[in-house]
């Protein structure tokens, strides 16, 4: 396993995430924020309008892109050790940060996977930036003799609100935690924000 550190950082305690890790972090974060906004707009402003299907195709394409980026990020995380947390953090703070990060990964998979499953019910092609994304493997066989409509309705209900609100709550905790540490003597923002300089 290699170390996910910036080559310019000499000491592990003053290390930041690598360029690849930072790029994946911010691209996924901005994409998720855009997805939540687009989902709200589709459901509240363009609901059942002629423009809704076009927006849905963009939403689906972004969701599948986030799924691919999340898989890439997990692969990178498993093969590149993250820089150590600041020694000034309390044990409970390290546990809380790890727990939130783990739940983030779960949600980054759960949201696009539930959308993929939802769109795989039936024969309608799944749009992916002008191409066709394959239906979820084995789903058609699994749903034989089952109520496919009820299955899709359940996924839509979970995908539309509970999972999104969990993601928003995790994002709020993540941001508030980073801001807290920025001012309590254990700054961490510089480790993931490219233009911030490490503390002296």
Helix share bin: 55-70%
Please describe the biggest sheet, giving its number of strands, its sense, and whether it closes into a barrel.
2 strands, parallel
Shape from CA axes?
Answer: elongated
* Overall pLDDT metric: 87
Structural class: mainly alpha
Spans with pLDDT under 50 lasting ≥5 residues?
8-13
The assembly state of the depicted protein chains is single chain
Distance between the termini: 29 Å
- Return the CATH architecture: Up-down Bundle
* Adjacency order of strands in the biggest sheet: 1-2
Number of domains: 1
Q: Would you tell me which CATH topology applies?
A: Fumarate Reductase Cytochrome B subunit
Order of helices and strands: EHHEHEEHHHH
So, the CATH homologous superfamily? Transmembrane di-heme cytochromes, Chain C
- Helix count, DSSP H or I runs of 4 or more residues: 7
Number of strand segments: 4
**Could you name the CATH class?**
Mainly Alpha
Tell me the radius of gyration.
20 Å
How much strand?
Answer: 5-15%
Structure described in brief:
It is built from 7 helices and 4 strands, in the order E-H-H-E-H-E-E-H-H-H-H.
SSE layout and pairing:
Elements: E1 2-3, H1 19-44, H2 52-79, E2 80-81, H3 91-120, E3 126-128, E4 131-133, H4 139-142, H5 148-160, H6 162-183, H7 189-192
Parallel strand pairs: 1-2
Antiparallel strand pairs: 3-4
Structure overview:
The protein has one domain (14-192): Transmembrane di-heme cytochromes, Chain C (Fumarate Reductase Cytochrome B subunit, Up-down Bundle), CATH 1.20.950.20. It contains seven helices and four strands; from the N terminus they run βααβαββαααα. The chain has helices at residues 19-44, 52-79, 91-120, 139-142, 148-160, 162-183, 189-192, and strands at 2-3, 80-81, 126-128, 131-133. A two-stranded parallel sheet has the order 1-2. It has a two-stranded antiparallel ribbon with strand order 3-4. β3 and β4 form a beta hairpin. Residues 8-13 have low confidence and may be disordered.
């Amino acid at each position: 396993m290699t170390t996910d550190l910036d080559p310019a950082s000499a000491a592990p305690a003053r290390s930041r995430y690598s360029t690849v890790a930072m790029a994946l972090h911010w691209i996924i974060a901005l994409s998720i924020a855009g997805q939540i906004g687009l989902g709200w707009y589709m459901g509240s402003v363009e609901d059942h309008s002629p423009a809704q299907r076009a927006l849905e195709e963009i939403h689906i394409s972004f969701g599948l892109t986030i799924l691919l980026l999340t898989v890439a990020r997990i692969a990178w995380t498993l093969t590149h050790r993250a820089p150590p947390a600041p020694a000034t953090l309390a044990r409970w703070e390290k546990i809380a940060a790890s727990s939130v990060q783990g739940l983030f990964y779960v949600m980054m998979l759960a949201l696009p996977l539930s959308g993929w499953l939802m769109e795989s019910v039936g024969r309608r092609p799944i749009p992916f930036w002008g191409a066709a994304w394959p239906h979820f493997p084995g789903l058609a066989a699994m749903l034989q003799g089952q109520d496919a409509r009820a299955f899709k309705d359940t996924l839509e209900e979970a995908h539309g609100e509970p999972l999104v609100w969990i993601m928003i709550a995790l994002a709020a905790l993540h941001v508030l935690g980073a801001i807290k540490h920025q001012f309590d003597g254990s700054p961490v923002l510089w480790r993931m924000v490219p233009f911030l300089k490490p503390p002296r």
